Prior knowledge:
Protein name: DNA replication licensing factor Mcm7
InterPro entries: AAA+_ATPase (IPR003593), MCM (IPR031327), MCM_dom (IPR001208), MCM_lid (IPR041562), MCM_OB (IPR033762), NA-bd_OB-fold (IPR012340), P-loop_NTPase (IPR027417), Sigma_54_int_dom_ATP-bd_1 (IPR025662)
GO biological process, one term: double-strand break repair via homologous recombination
CATH topology of the domain at 308-467: Rossmann fold
Pfam family, one: MCM_OB
Family: Belongs to the MCM family.
Helix content: 25-40%
Amino acid sequence: MENIKDLFGKQEINLIELCNLNPELANKFVLNTSLYKKNLKSKSLYGIPLALLLNVFPKANDISKLVSIKGTIIRSSNVLLKNVEYSIECTECDWKKTVLSETDITNVCETCMSNNCITKQAFDNAIGHQTLRIQDIGNPDTLSDTLEISAEGKWSGRFFPGERILVTGIVKVNMINNKVGEKIKSFLTLHALNIARIDDIVLTFQEEKLFDEFKNYDDFKKRETILKSFGSHIYGYMNVKLGLILAIIGGNNNLGFSENKIEINETENRKSNNIISNDENKEKLNENLNGDKSFVSFKTDRRSSSHVLLVGDSGTGKTQLMGCCLQIIKPAIKTNGLGTSDAGLTTCAIKQGGEWNLEAGALVLADCGLCCIDEFNSLKTNEKSGLLEVMEQQTLSVAKAGLVTCLNARCSIVAVCNVNNNFSLKNNLPEFLNISSPLISRFDLIFGLFDDKNYQNDIKKTDLVLSRFTVHDEKESAKKSNLWSLATIRSYIKLIRNNKIETNFGVNNILLKYYNYKRKTKSNTEIITIRMLESLYRLTEAHAKIVSRNVCTSEDAYISIFVYESGISCNKICKFDSDRIFIEPAYFKGKTNELISLLEIEK
Length: 603
């Protein structure tokens, strides 16, 4: 019994330890916390059992119970002070008294009865208080339900819109009466005793064994396994599938300054100056050129997320591919351009109880994840303008209703545009799609999915569709069993996404040669900017992650070039079959040699 008293006497209560000491008391504690109000005042919990986790938001029968719930923060209030006291002090006899309410303040001393009393606010026992509103996005059981979280003390001011959290607390009833004569409205809130950022992906033993075997595959088998598993019900489009996966994985996370080293060849000095923007870095470059090669250290601040635009006819599988993307990463938000406003994409200011709060939109909720936008060309001009900062800077600057702040929006964007049948690759993309050049240049990859009316491909597509409705033989079932599920792909991406990838001189030289060649030969309809070079670097780093490498190689660079060349935003400098080049070693080697010869790259 003494151990239990000591446990409740601590500032932090360990629930697992309480269960071990007295299971019956722990059960009563969880089912009716109102009996232990004094023990829980200004305290927090840890060692929380998984049994407390609810699949849906709490209901009326959960009042006074201790529960855990997952959700994404969609709104957060300002941090206010609670338990502010008033200190009354007599200047005549030094009499002192502390009261909690303004109504209890008096100017008369209770000892000497003089009127010379001074009242001051006392913050000794004050604690921070913040209200959060969460939504379990992606859970079909909760739909659009939201829940208000009351965060006090050390839990206030630590969490922001877009973050996914696990909250453990007491279900309480809150009542409000906005106007005189109106009925009192009641709603459920969760008084938080523990809040933690959560990671949804936990590898199973089978997945760990599978990934260990996967590391022993050669690069082509690794790539083929993932590409054939991703969107296995969609025929072809290997380039599009690879581009989407590379965009979701992203490159090195260099947001915030970091020190990078790049090896420079003296003969490439002038060309390399194109990618070093400020004069100080150019001076360092020239100072370090003492031999044929040297290393240049300079600071970079570039995003890791890539963006993809899918353009094509209706019924070509664009939305299906988008649906596959939504299942391999969390958080993942989908919205439609026809029913989306600028506030819905970015953020809006909401007045509640006389106070203005910011409510996060789709881009903020997708922080560190993916935001998919269908019918992208249906967005209005002012709605698209909000994407410019998010796609490049990965932040969202807000100045609404007197609230000025900057929110994180570090997400990849996959957008889909439906085009008319008269679309031609010779068309100017910004004009035809009604998308401004600054916005379209922010997309790392732009793919075209068109109905080419190829008889052989039509047969293969129809066979694949019909096979989903027929009984398979043992050989066919064994073949499909080698494919990964989307859940397995999601686990693998989560495992490799934060890997740090190093680059070397060979990779830099290949990408720089290609960039300079495209600059020289670009057409009037082609947009070739420094963003293209940065995109190639991100794709190269992402591909190195896919094949479980810590250092980029020339193969990663060539793959990123072929993925970019397979899009519709550039004039191709070499022709190839995009469904073969990523999975057939001999075909890839032949086309790589053509590219090496064209760019005059030394082997």
